[in-house]
Amino acid sequence: MQKEVKKITTHTLQKMKANGEKIAMITAYDFSFAKIFDAAGVDIILVGDSASNVMAGHETTVPITLEQMIYHAQSVVRGINRCLVVVDLPFGTYQSNTEIALASAVRIMKETGGHSIKLEGGEEVVDSIKKIVSAGIPVMGHLGLTPQSIYKFGTYNVRAKEEEEADKLRRDALLLQEAGCFGIVLEKIPAMLAKEVSESLHIPTIGIGGGRHCDGQVLVMHDLLGITTEFKPRFLRQYLNLQEQITGAVQHYIKDVKDKTFPNEQEQY
Ligand code: KIV
Question: Is 99 a catalytic residue?
Answer without folding.
Answer: no
